[in-house]
Each structure stands twice: as structure tokens, then as C-alpha cells.
Amino acid sequence: MSIQAGNRYHIVNVKSDTALDLSGTDNVSIIGWEKHNGDNQKASRVWELEHENNQWTFRNVGNGKYLGIAEGDLENGLALRAVDNPFAWDIFPDHNDNSVYRCVLPLMRFLSVAIYGAPFFESFFGS
Length: 127
Known about the structure:
The protein has strands at residues 8-10, 12-13, 18-22, 30-34, 46-52, 55-60, 66-69, 80-83, 90-93, 100-105, 108-116. It is mainly β and 127 residues long. The strands form 4 sheets. It has a 3-stranded antiparallel sheet, with no helix packed on it. Strands 2-3-4 form a 3-stranded antiparallel sheet, with no helix packed on it. Strands 9-10-11 form a 3-stranded antiparallel sheet, with no helix packed on it. Strand 3 (18-22) and strand 4 (30-34) form a beta hairpin. The chain is globular, with a radius of gyration of 13 Å. The N and C termini lie close together (10 Å).
């Protein structure tokens, strides 16, 4: 499986099996939520991949914002947020499971988010 710019994906945390979801409360907070494919998750958890300058961005289909991080020091535990401007990510295949891709901040390999894939993420960038 390979990921492609322009495709839409669900992002899934492989450890908790929860979907990366845009909070309906504030449309900014990123939360992990049980995948149930209800109407409220149809657009809020769909992300379109864009690729430029060897880096990737995730644009939320529901509100057009990008997957980014909260302002502050770069460290593990930093909150993911929906942000107005494109936010660059590196994506690479997991070395133990070739159906899984890892998303990390450039040059920050310790800060990772897993995704399943193929058009419409259902497995770490999976369909």
C-alpha cells in the first residue's frame, strides 16, 4: 500500500484503535475517538493529504484546517490541533509493519503519530 497526495484518509491510532477526530465542540481540538462512522465523523475525521517540498500536510475535509500542533515547546505529549496554515509532516513506513505509516514532525523522530493508509484511512492510512 502506498500513500498519495490528493487522496483522503482517516487517521487511526494503531495502539488505541481510535480515529483522529476534529472536536465538534471547538473545531480546533484533535481527539481520539472510537470509530463508529456516524454522521458526525463523516467529515470531521477525513483528512486530505497534500505533498510539497518532500513534506506532507493533512487538510481536514470538514473545515479546511490543517493538522498541526499546539504552540509551545516541541516535546512528547504536545497536543495536536487544527491550524489555519499548512503544517509540514514527514511520513515514512513503519519498519515492523509495511501496512502502517508513521507521521512525525521533520527532524523530530521521537514525536510520532501513526496513520493507516490507502484512500480513506481505515488502517493507519487505510481504506
